[in-house]
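Record type: monomer structure entry
Structure origin: computed from sequence
Chain ID: A
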Amino acid sequence: MKRSAWTIVTLMLGAAVSAAIHQPDAAAQSPSIKPGDELRPIYATPEDIAAGKEFADSACAGCHGSNGISTTTGIPNLAGQRPSYLYVELKTYQSGGRKNAAMNTSVRFISDDALVKVAAYYASLDPPQPAPGAPAIYVDAVQAGKTAAAACAGCHGEAGVSKTPGIPSLVALNPQYLTTAMKAYRSGQRQNDTMKSMVAALGDADIDHLALFYALQKPIRAQTPAPGDPQAGKAITAGCAGCHGDQGVSSNPATPSLAGQDAQYLVAALRAYKNGARADETMKALAASLDDNALKNIVAYYAAQEPRAPNIRPPLTAEQWAERCDRCHGLNGNSSDPGIPALAAQRVEYLETALRDYQTHARTRPEMIAMSDVLSEDDIKNLATYYSHQKARAVVFMAVPEKH
C-alpha cells in the first residue's frame, strides 16, 4: 500500500533547509538544477504522483520493477527512496554527470516536470524488505587467513614463526610486501616450485587474507640458528637501513622488515639477488660486492634484532563501519534527509558496485570518495551485505512553520 501523497512534504527549518540537503553526485555539474529545485518532488500532489506512476510504469518498470522493487541483478530498488536524492540523480544522469549509457539515454529527453513526478512517485511507495530468514553472511578476513595458514604451518611454523633453517618467518611483514611476494611465486617471477604449487590455487582474496593474518600475529624472532658475527654485520648494514629501516624494521609497506628473520633464508635471498635469480637491480648492486663471510655476518645481525609488528589494525566489522555510514545515511541506513539515499534493503550487488565506483571516481561525490577510499574489498562486501539485510522504513517529512 502507498502512503498518502500529502505526507511527502518537507521538514522546514527556515533558511537552514537548503544547507541541510547534501548535493548528490555531480549535481553541481548540472546547470539545470537551480537552488531549491531539489526540493520540488517533496511538494508533489496526489495528481503529480499518479502522473509519475503512469510514466514510471511505461519507462522505468522494465528495469526497476513494476513497484520500484528490482528483480534484476545490479539494478537498484527505487521504492521508498528519498525524493530529492532521486530527482537530483536523474538530473545528473540527464546532464552526463553520471556515466551509465542506459540511464543517460533513458532520461535524455524527459522533461523536468516528468522527473519531478517520477521521483515523487517512487518516494511515495513502501520500501522493499530483505528476504525473510535470509542470514547475513560476512567475510571474516582474519579467520579466513588463519584457515588458509593451516597449510603453511608445516614449513613456516605455527603463527608464521619459522623453526626450520632456510624457511622464512612470515610474521612482522607488512601485508603489502607479503601479498606481492606470494603473487610473485604464483606467477613464477620468484623461482620456487614448492611455493608456486602452494599458492597456485589461491585467489587474490585468499592471498590478502593470509598476509593480514600473519601481519597481526605476535612478532617473534625465528627459532633457528644464525652463524656469523652480528657485530661485524652491523658495521656493514649502513647501506641497508635506508630501505629496510634501522635495526631491520622497515617503515615502507613495499619493503620487507629483516629483524628476527631466519638467517639461512636471508643468505639465500641475497645470493639470489647477487646472481640475478631474483630480479631487483638495487639489491643486485648492493649484494654484488659481498662475499659469503660478509653475507653471513649481515644476516646474523638482522636475525638477532627484535621484530616489530607492522602498523596494521584488525579490520572493522560491518557494524563498526555502518556506525560511520549511519551518520549521513540514517540509523541502519534509513535516511531521514530527503537528499541522502536510504541504503536499507537495497540490492547487495548494487551497493557493492556503487562503493567501487566511488573508489575509482566513476562517481564523484567528494564525501563518498573519501569514505570509500579506505575500504578493502572485504569491507565493501560486508557493508553491502549489512545494509541489504536492514529493515527499510518509510519517512514522512512534516512541515514546520518557520519561527520569527
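Annotation 1: The first helix runs from residue 16 to 20.
Annotation 2: Residues 1-24 have pLDDT under 50 and may be disordered.
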